[in-house]
Amino acid sequence: MLFKFSARDANGKKIEGKIEAVSNDTAVQIIQNKGLTPLFVVREKETPEYLQSLQRIWEGASQKELMVFFRELATLIEAKVPIVVALRAVGEQSENNYIKTVVREISDDVEDGMPVSESMAKYPETFSTLSINMIKAGEISGSLQSSVVFIADNVEKNYRLTSKIRGALLYPAFVVTAAIIVGFLAVTIILPKLTGLIKEMQVEIPWYTRLLMIFSNFMRDYWWAVLIAAAGGIVGFIYYIKTEAGRKEWDNVKINLPVVGKLYRYIYITRFCNNFSVLLASGIPIVRALMVVGDVVNNSVFKAVILRAADEVKSGGNISTVFTRSDVIPP
Asked: What confidence tier does 141 reach under pLDDT thresholds 50, 70, 90?
């Protein structure tokens, strides 16, 4: 349960915040253990799970914000600033309230003795599996600063790649959207006027023109039903691809689409190469690195190939053996 509290420290300074505890008494005990004198402790009304998910999606943390976070954190660690102090300083500097809250909670966990990687793992919607594993590797090897720099570089690469992809797809998306709007207006406004003119002329028209006229009249009278059906289809499609079967099918369709399918393949291959090289450079074993990248690549078809490669390496084989047999990775 989440409790909101107000307390004073040894210097009489008033401190307010929130803590997780199983009961009110436990919350008071936790506050006292921190050397604070509780003024009041009140259980905060919990937000339903579905609203929490929506809130995280709405607020969230962009790649650019995560890049800045890791860059600043690496700078402070390199300057020998204690990790708890560094986390709090970077969190408070962020303009994103969501990042502030998450980093504050991570710093509290670390202050209580929890490893940074373990605390970050509580927020999988913010920190990727790759970032968490690299932080863990840095904690074990004693090179946390290097790991954080690696993560910042990797997030920056992904951010730049994503920006280029969005820029490349922006114009085609604009053209398709404009074509749909023009087609809709032509069918619902222009064609009905031409239909009336053709009827007045009393001329024989081909069957396909009659079919087009019928379709135009239907769109003019029931355009609202078409929009509702389209919206329902889009919502249904989104829900379907969130299921395991739907996601696998959509991932397979994406890499086999005409024109853009090749682009998707290169995106996933680039993502695999960038992340895999970063993990190997940070000292993570090759099998573990493959398993982590399988989650990060964000395509179930590529993930299956990468996990097969991990199994092959476990058995003493080579990555290239699996990749050569695969039909999704080019030679």
From this structure: confident
Confirm if 188 and 222 have CB atoms less than 8 A apart.
no
Encoded tokens for 186: 């032509």
The domain 53-144 belongs to what CATH superfamily? Answer: Type II secretion system (T2SS), domain F (1.20.81.30)
The amino acid that residue 148 corresponds to is V
- Which residue in 273, 281, 260 sits closest to 302, CA to CA? 273
Q: Where are the domains of the chain?
A: 2-46, 53-144, 159-237, 260-325
The answer on pLDDT for 201 being more than 80 is no
Which long-range contacts (C-beta less than 8 Å, at least 24 apart) are formed by 215-223?
Answer: 215/187, 216/187, 216/188, 216/191, 216/192, 217/192, 219/184, 219/187, 219/188, 220/187, 220/188, 220/189, 220/192, 223/184, 223/188
Residue found under tokens 């890791």 = 70
Cα Rg of the chain (Å, integer) = 28
Greater confidence, 54 or 33? 33
To the nearest whole percent, how much of the chain has pLDDT over 90? 7
Residue 42 CA to residue 45 CA, distance in Å, equals 9
Sign of the Cα pseudo-torsion (280, 283, 287, 293, in order): negative
Give the Cα separation of 292 and 124 in Å (integer): 13
Annotate 153-185 with b (16+ C-beta within 10 A) or e (fewer): bbbbbbbeeeeeeeeeeeeeeeeeeeeeeeeee
Q: Say which residue, 120 or 297, is predicted with more confidence.
A: 120
